[in-house]
Design brief:
- This protein has 244 residues and is α+β, with helices and mostly antiparallel strands.
- 38% of the residues lie in helices and 17% in strands.
- Strands 3-8-4-5-6-7 form a 6-stranded antiparallel β-sheet.
- The longest helix is centred in the middle third of the chain and has 25 residues, at 89-113.
- The radius of gyration is 20 Å and the shape is globular.
- The chain binds zinc ion.
- Zinc ion is lined by residues 102, 106, 121, 124, 186.
Length: 244
């Protein structure tokens, strides 16, 4: 059965979906990344226009237009005039499947290898396309069926259901509001290190002491610590409010 010690048996990536799927020459990875980008914009309540998707993926608008045409033909998304794109049920399922993989891989790397929350996103971006469903489900069981990833994002379940995001951005709180940090943006390692330097992690309790007008600093108290954060950073950290 075994072909020999130098030829390890390997699961085909994306087993269970169309294996080695290509759409008009588009590699599977690009398809999955585009669907994930559209899903991410929808989840952030942003309009998934050609430009917005191109910005997320770091590619030219023309290549997004081309890819979208192919994916629409595949029934993965639809073009909605004056809006942008919308995922079909099939497209959403695939995007959520990638997010499940991504978030479980991040948690796995942190819990088993002891990596920091700023060290896992880039590798998870690559690995999510390559691992088999069987491995992902073994990781899920090994980790004790977690509901959230290390950055506080909900992990979609294996049939594509996902909990609503918790909390609101700190920037949306008013002076006197209190909350517990529930989710942070994970794409930028530098930003996560900045949060660590302020002592912010998932589960930190904080209170808004004051907000400068016109998008200035948000002044926070965390335990005995007082910290200030610019509005841009305060948009990227969500807190579940304990009271308003
Ligand atoms: Zn990530």
């Amino acid at each position: 059965m075994n072909a020999g010690p130098n030829v390890p048996e390997r699961e085909a990536p994306m087993a269970g979906w169309e294996q080695n799927h290509e759409t008009a020459g588009m590699p599977q990875t690009s398809i999955e990344d585009l669907l994930k980008a559209v899903y991410g914009l929808e989840a952030a309540k942003k309009r998934p226009s050609t430009k917005a998707v191109a910005d997320v993926l770091g590619v030219q608008m023309a290549s997004v237009t081309g890819m979208v045409k192919n994916l629409a033909a595949e029934g993965l998304l639809e073009h909605v005039p004056y809006h942008g794109f919308e995922l079909t049920a099939k497209g959403r399922e695939l995007a959520l499947r990638m997010l499940r993989r991504h978030r479980l891989i991040e948690l796995f790397l942190i819990q088993t290898l002891g990596l920091g929350w700023d060290e896992v996103h880039a590798d998870a971006e690559v690995m999510e396309h390559a691992v088999s469903d069987q491995l992902v489900e073994r990781i899920y069981a090994y980790l004790g069926k977690p509901e959230f990833d290390p950055h506080g994002s909900p992990i979609p379940d294996s049939d594509g259901a996902v909990a609503a995001r918790s909390g609101v951005p700190i920037a949306h709180l008013a002076a006197g509001d209190e909350g517990i940090v529930s989710e942070v943006e994970d794409e930028d390692p530098e930003f996560l290190r900045y949060l660590s330097s302020l002592g912010i992690k998932i589960g930190s309790s904080l209170r808004v002491m004051a907000k400068d007008p016109y998008g200035g600093l948000v002044r926070l108290r965390m335990g005995r610590r007082r910290i200030s954060m610019g509005t841009e950073a305060a948009e990227r950290v969500r807190v579940a409010r304990s009271h308003v």
